[in-house]
From TrEMBL:
The chain crosses the membrane at residues 12-28. Residues 141-269 form the NACHT domain. This is NACHT domain-containing protein. PROSITE patterns: NACHT (PS50837). It comes from Ornatilinea apprima. Keywords: Membrane, Transmembrane, Transmembrane helix. It comes from the Bacteria. The keyword Transmembrane helix applies.
């Protein structure tokens, strides 16, 4: 029998050991849970220390970009950007991501007018919904700002940079940092595809030469990893096709390395290259209304009187005469052309009334007298023929010297200039500078040329480059180049057309059957404002436009889009033409004509437009109401009030939306209408109040949503209040993968299948275009531009040809984004 040693058992020791063990395991288990939080806390503290260490550098970068932004406009030598800025606005086709409908809360004005991503002028006078640029980027989507040259894309990027810095300067440690560059600042000839952030570091090092490159590299990498960068890239719309392709390849690598990085860049409506395939979404830069233009003129007048006017001069002109002439001009120009117009008016250098004369005046004003314009024309032509945006400094200087007459060889002509006195000796040194370098220095100082990384030199605006190139007789040869989609080439051709040197090419373009969106016609129409009224091609082109407007074999969407071609023509016979079209038997023609008259604010047609308020077609009545509101006279003001109180339901709502933009009388009328005993008037007032971004309007909407006696008013007031309180819902959203898209999952389930990944998911979306519901087709058309495959583009083109209404509009928008690729495929 085994014998065990005597064991003394102490209950106290047992329970003490038990409690100690339990406490140990509890502490151990708790520590395991706490350690990740501690590690996270330590990591946050390290990041905070690094941010405080880099706070000085970040503040320096913000200051540099703020100063840079204030210089990014045509008159930078006269004033800062904020002194004359008119806030840019974006037009974006809002679509409810769940239903495919027209957004969460869409006004009747927006429902009446299709969204054309290449025709901003048609919307300028109408109170359509537009996006604040800072709201447009709040959801993190990558955007490409599209507009014609001269519309202000560079200005929009500079304005966004300035506002991002000003809005977030109070919290530099956590706010996102805008990095704003022209694409040439990144040295695109040497894109680093292995380390794409290196090009950003290079651009920053050129901006801050006193900082060490290693320090900037650590700083930029930290910002990118923390997702604290908004990258704004200007100049992509100016790149020739080959350079554009290289740039998008670099952007693709950059986005793969930093998927959360948000980028905003520039493009033209038909020249986006591979950007849609990278997930960039186009937003159209809104054109100025006449009220915004007049506000710009008033800022100019105040600036000129304060800084540049010569009081008591015998040649001084009363500014009231100048402003009266400017305000009453109803021609439709770009902001750049309006800038040149007001500058010429106050400077006294008015050479004529056409945009071409304003460009001539600008060159007379800024080009140094020792440099002939002809030499600049040869430089411009060389850039366009070689399909380059810039040239090395030495090459540009040599080219200018080649065509610049001089008494001595350019390379041997020198001038002596005094350098700044030295601090110690106080002596002044003299150094020699060649006349070639002096000419380049003068051009850079004037703002006509800009210099970038790698000593690359370019013209400050492609409109100037195209105009200068077109002045040479030999420029007619560039029409045959196959780069018409490249904006610089297109602009040069525009001016060549304007001087009657391309009649055969114009006829060929108009008659083209392959251009299913008729983009060629719209590009030719951009030449009309620069042409003489007696040009041989102009009258026949205008007749052809009117003929196509009546051609019912052309989709109504494209026919309505032709109205924009007539608007920008600035032809003195337009008022008579539209008056004749008012009497057409076709409701579509009457609708189009009255919209055009409103877009130009033709007050001579007020009485005729008033009669269309009684048209048998509701859409024509609504368009007539819009047009009267755009004409903006005391008489039309009374007519709009009458429409609000006694018009049809749709016209009442349009009238209320018109009154919302009149901050003086219109707002008071809406306040009274919100208390009306008439149900329809109160309902219309809600549609107007939701467009007013002021606190008093929200209070009225809140009151109506709770206290109104009619459910229909309470309901729409509630939706309107939600719309005003959540503007981000109208902003673009980043694309999600097809397999994670709710509407596509629902479509696939109806087909008895799941959503595949990769190419099969794209094929499923193509199948939606054939068999889906209209709202599903719209959602598919919104997503498919990311996949510019031939089969996809061909299917979108078929939808555009066969469908009508919102589906056709969505197909047009999708096809336009990849139109340069679509045309290369040879499909029609």
């Amino acid at each position: 029998m085994l014998q065990f040693p005597s064991i003394s058992f102490s209950p106290f020791s047992f329970w003490l050991g038990f409690l100690a063990g339990a406490l140990f395991w509890w502490l151990f288990s708790s520590a395991r849970k706490i350690v990740p939080d501690v590690n996270k806390w330590i990591k946050l503290q390290i990041e905070a220390i690094n941010r405080r260490r880099n706070a000085g550098l970040e503040h320096q970068i913000r200051s540099q970009f703020l100063n840079w932004a204030q210089q990014q406009h045509l008159t930078a030598n006269l004033c800062a950007l904020d002194q004359i800025a008119i806030e840019p606005r974006f037009i974006f086709p809002t679509i409810d991501p769940e239903t495919g409908g027209g957004g969460h809360f869409s006004s009747l004005t927006n429902q009446l007018l299709p969204v054309f991503l290449d025709c901003p002028e048609i919307y300028a006078q109408f109170n359509i919904d537009t996006l604040d640029p800072l709201v447009a980027i709040c959801n993190g989507a990558n955007l490409v700002i599209t507009a014609q040259s001269g519309m202000g894309k560079t200005f929009a990027l500079a304005w966004m940079t300035s506002r991002l810095i000003s809005r977030e300067e109070d919290t530099p440690g956590s706010a996102r940092l805008p990095l704003s560059f022209h694409i040439l600042d990144l040295n695109p000839e040497k894109f680093n595809l292995e380390n794409p952030a290196a090009n950003l570091v290079l651009a920053l090092s050129n901006l801050l030469p006193s900082e060490k490159t290693q320090k900037l590299e650590r700083f930029v990498n930290a910002l990118l990893k923390e997702n604290r960068v908004v990258l704004l890239l200007d100049g992509l719309d100016e790149l020739a096709p080959e350079a554009h392709q290289k740039t998008t390849a670099w952007l693709s690598v950059l986005l793969q390395a930093y998927p959360q990085l948000q980028m905003i860049t520039t493009g033209t409506p038909t020249y986006l290259g591979d950007l849609p395939g990278l997930g960039f979404q186009p937003v159209l830069l809104s054109s100025w209304s006449y009220a915004e233009r007049n506000r710009y003129y008033s800022k100019w007048r105040d600036l000129w009187q304060e800084n540049y006017a010569t009081s008591g001069s015998a040649t001084a002109v009363d500014d009231r005469l100048i402003m009266g002439w400017l305000f009453n001009d109803k021609r439709r120009f770009t902001p750049l052309e309006w800038c040149l117009m007001v500058w010429a008016a106050f400077d006294g250098l008015v050479l004529g009334e056409s945009p071409t004369s304003y460009l001539e005046g600008l060159l007379d004003r800024v080009v140094p007298h020792n440099i002939p314009v002809r030499s600049l024309s040869y430089l411009s032509l060389e850039l366009i023929q070689s399909q380059k945006l810039s040239l090395p400094y030495r090459s540009a200087a040599a080219l200018l010297a080649k065509y610049r007459p001089s008494t001595a060889p350019a390379a041997e002509a020198f001038e002596e200039i005094e350098s700044a006195p030295e601090q110690r000796s106080g002596l002044k040194r003299k150094k020699k500078i060649s006349s070639r370098d002096q000419a380049m220095s003068d051009l850079l100082e004037s703002g006509l040329l800009n210099e970038h990384a790698g000593e690359q030199v370019r013209f400050s605006n492609p409109l100037l480059m195209g105009y200068l190139a077109s002045l040479l007789p030999e420029s007619a040869a560039i029409i045959e180049q196959s780069t018409f989609d490249w904006p610089a080439h297109e602009i040069a051709v525009r001016f060549i057309i304007a001087r009657d040197a391309a009649q055969g090419w114009v006829s060929k373009t108009i008659q083209s059957q392959k251009d299913i969106l008729q983009t060629g016609i719209h590009k030719v129409s951009r030449a009309i404002p620069y042409s003489s009224l007696t040009s041989t091609w102009r009258s026949s082109f205008m007749r052809d436009l009117v003929s196509k407007l009546h051609d019912e074999s052309i989709p109504s969407l494209l026919r309505l889009r032709l109205i924009n071609c007539l608007l920008i023509a600035n032809d003195p016979s337009l008022a008579l033409l539209f008056k004749q079209l008012y009497a057409s038997r076709s409701a579509f023609i009457r609708f189009s004509a009255v919209l055009a008259a409103g877009s130009l604010g033709l007050t001579t047609l007020i009485n005729e437009t008033r009669q269309l308020l009684n048209d048998e077609i509701t859409e024509v009545q609504m368009a007539a109401c819009l047009a009267l509101g755009a004409m903006d006279t005391p008489q039309t003001q009374r007519l709009i009030e009458s429409c609000l109180s006694s018009g049809t339901e749709e016209v009442q709502q349009v009238a209320a939306e018109i009154l919302s933009k009149d901050s003086k009388d219109g707002h008071e009328i809406l306040k009274v209408a919100a208390t009306s005993e008439n149900l329809l008037v109160r309902r219309a007032a809600v549609m107007g109040l939701c467009k007013i971004k002021e606190e008093w309007a929200q209070k009225i909407l809140q009151k109506l949503s709770i206290e109104d006696g009619q459910w229909v008013v309470r309901s729409i007031a509630g939706h309107a209040l939600e719309y005003t309180q959540h503007p981000e819902r109208q902003a673009p959203m980043p694309f999600t993968k097809p397999e994670n898209t709710e509407w596509l999952i629902q479509y696939a389930s109806r087909q008895g299948m799941g959503v595949p990944v990769g190419q099969l998911a794209i094929d499923l979306m193509v199948d939606v275009l054939r068999r889906g519901k209209p709202e599903e087709k719209i959602l598919a058309l919104r997503a498919l531009p990311q996949y510019p495959q031939n089969r996809v583009l061909e299917e979108i083109a078929q939808v555009f040809k066969k469908e009508q209404g919102p589906v056709q509009e969505a197909a047009y928008q999708a096809l336009l984004q990849n139109y340069s690729i679509f045309q290369k495929t040879g499909m029609s």
